[in-house]
Automatic annotation (TrEMBL):
GO biological process, one term: Entner-Doudoroff pathway through 6-phosphogluconate
Organism: Ciceribacter selenitireducens ATCC BAA-1503
Swiss-Prot/TrEMBL catalytic activity: 6-phospho-D-gluconate = 2-dehydro-3-deoxy-6-phospho-D-gluconate + H2O
Protein name as catalogued: Phosphogluconate dehydratase
Domain Dihydroxy-acid/6-phosphogluconate dehydratase N-terminal, chain residue ranges per copy: 68-381
Entry EC number(s): 4.2.1.12
Signal recorded as keyword: no
Amino acid sequence: MSADSRIEAITRRIVERSRPSREVYLERVRGQISKGVHRSVLSCGNLAHGFAACSVGDKAALAGDIIPNLGIITAYNDMLSAHQPFETYPALIRKAAAEAGGIAQVAGGVPAMCDGVTQGQPGMELSLFSRDVIAMAAGIGLSHNMFDAAVFLGVCDKIVPGLVIAALTFGHLPSVFIPAGPMTTGLPNDEKSRIRQLYAEGKVGRAELLEAESKSYHGPGTCTFYGTANSNQMLMEIMGFHMPGASFINPNTPLRDALTKEATKRALAITAQGNEFTPAGEMIDERSIVNGVVGLHATGGSTNHTLHLVAMARAAGIHLTWQDISDLSDIVPLLARVYPNGLADVNHFHAAGGMGFLIKQLLKAGFVHDDVRTVYGQGLAAYTIDPRLGPDGNVIRQPSPEESADPKVLARIDTPFQPNGGLKMLTGNLGKAVIKVSAVKPERQVIEAPAIVFHDQQELQDAFKAGTLDRDFVAVVRFQGPKSNGMPELHRLTPPLGVLQDRGFKVALVTDGRMSGASGKVPAAIHVTPEAVDGGAIAKIRDGDVIRLDAIAGTLEVLAPAAEFAARPAIVADLSANEFGMGRELFAPLRRVAGPADEGASVLY
């Protein structure tokens, strides 16, 4: 299947732009591959340390170069619902590896924090940087050079992007990502959102709010709304890092365990000792990255991936830009309505046809590249399936249906919910920003109103509670960028802004911070760069300046005389309150060297 000519053109320009860095990257990967099985370079003392805790049989096997050894990088902890199921995975993986004639060892653990727990709290200021810490921690685990392939156990917001960066940094190794799956459906997401707004208005108390939240987040697995965590799972499948159909099977089910065993055996099958060697650095290329971006648009995915996809691509020597992402959004139609872009959750999405149906529709229109490499060993068409549990306990795959089981949740390519993906880049005299409009009503996609400036999200909350925001305005929440305070998500601002919008006021948000994968019905220009702490134009805005946010034209402007605005001094804020507490002092070096949002807000590149 050939790709649409517009998709091909964007892919080609990414290839050309990336050529110098991609060639250097591939040369390094191939240099590592040429060294053969890496345990062979270890001294006897090195190797003895590496298998000291193994059984006698495993020690004998690892002493040679024949039996493949699988390194497990795990983000397990039992506080977070999405990662708690991973507790039992290492034993399952070791057993499956032994059945396939291999060995598996836990190479290392990485931190896994939850933005849901830290939302609006000081710990959120560590969240974005945890991505790069995870990449480095995984790198430490794999640096022992004991492994022929790796499997990565991770699900949520920064964890998967960090693990992908690590997998591509160790691009000479085959890498398979093994998910845990979403929790079963609880309180509907729109009802949860309604209770949050009532709480923000003071119409229900904390007890009612906690009851609603607990009914929404009620068991093991990923949160069921379509935020960054579930966008991650979509990406891993459409980019070929998952086994086909693996993304959205609930935890602690026979099919989930069967998929985990299958992924383990496949990881061992694609090592250099076999006939299907698939190193991650060669497998993932510009076409894979484009497929990921297309999947993000087709599903109305997380705005956080305008940061993460850029950083992930950079780890493979590929230079993806916001303009590429925005241009692809103009081409790719929205095919999924999953909260916050609709009422359904990811379980409903999977039941309607899920990833297999989605990929089949995108292939029909040529919106994704079929001629890519995947861990499954075939092109993307092999992912147009519906996974089932076979009578012998193994995974069987049936062709995905031709029709959606619920057209209100998952649409055909010829009857999309909207003609574009809804993620756009904004440009203007404030620099560059990103906006997600797939959940914003068309009449609210252009806002022109006076600015009210805040230097802290709590200031906006306090103003809302004081009743001083009952008017048309654009909330400018600045000094929230990566160098300022780690670029926290500002999702707690959604309820008060949503209340004001529901009261009939024209409201919008402009910030150099993030707004999370749950970006919803309020127009929000986020990731503004240059950020305020770097003297960006957002630091020049004053209360009362008229701001025009036009998501249709793709512009973000302060409507002030150009010469006067350019001559204004940038405000300098006292950020000392963000420098200590909850570990923030440990991250001061990262804040100093963080890159701009449009380059992934990374400390690594």
